[in-house]
Amino acid sequence: MTQFKSKNIETNAIHAGRINDSQFGSLATPLYQTSTFIFDNAQQGGDRFAGESEGYIYTRLGNPTTRQLEQRVAAMECMDDAAATATGMAAVSAALLTNLQAGDHMISSKAVYGCSFALMNHMLKKFNIEVTFVDMTEPDNIKAAIKENTKLVFLETPINPNLVVLDLEKICAIAKKHNLLSIVDNTFLTPVLQQPAKFGADIVVHSATKYLNGHGDVVAGIVCASFDMINEIKMTTLKDIGATISPHDAWLIMRGLKTLPIRMDRHCSNAQTVA
Fold first, then answer.
1. Which terminus of the chain has a lower count of CB atoms within 10 Å, N or C?
2. CA–CA distance, 32 with 78 (Å, rounded to integer)
3. What's the whole-model pTM score?
4. pLDDT mean for each 10 residues of the chain (275 residues)
5. Would residue 113 show up in a list of annotated catalytic residues for this protein?
């Protein structure tokens, strides 16, 4: 079984992460709509549960259909790997909870998606995690908000819903200078129009519900990051909290990704006409 990856984002939107079906030769991505996987014997099952051999166990822990989606979006974002989640907010939650613990502090853009704001302003407080919201149109405001226990910076650009554009490169540079992780919500532009990793972002999150899927029939999210970070997200936050995407939803999103570059081009031309 071989996996495909290209330097061309339009090609990656269709083919990246594809695993050739050596058994039946299916051109389309197979839908593995299963909760569990068969082991050849008890030893193989034991080895997989112990992490001593590769292979699928249980769809909450991984699924071949979902895996192809993850590798496809990671390739499009020019990042190592990705984790697919049940919702966009599950992606945001996984990125934050994997990297924060009680007593930590984080900095967020003052203007963010409403549910992201609620998560940070209400839910994280229950875990004794402090959040400072700043106006990131002036990146120096981030420097002023940094504390000894600050761990990361979170932002969206363009911001949902006011479409304010932030200086992504400068903000990521400030985060790196102070040894902070930078998490960027790239939902509005998608990797077709913006790849935050090229500006220094450590983690990129998406609500795949919107442009990535593009058909209004799926609720899902994606987190993109380094191999180690994604492994930690999958083996801790996602595994234990259980915000698992269904294989069918992953399959539907891959269908949507095939037309993403064309759709984003039309969105841009429509916006130019309106402007």
1. C
2. 26
3. 0.94
4. 67 80 82 94 91 91 96 96 98 98 98 97 97 98 98 97 96 98 98 98 98 97 98 93 96 97 96 93
5. yes
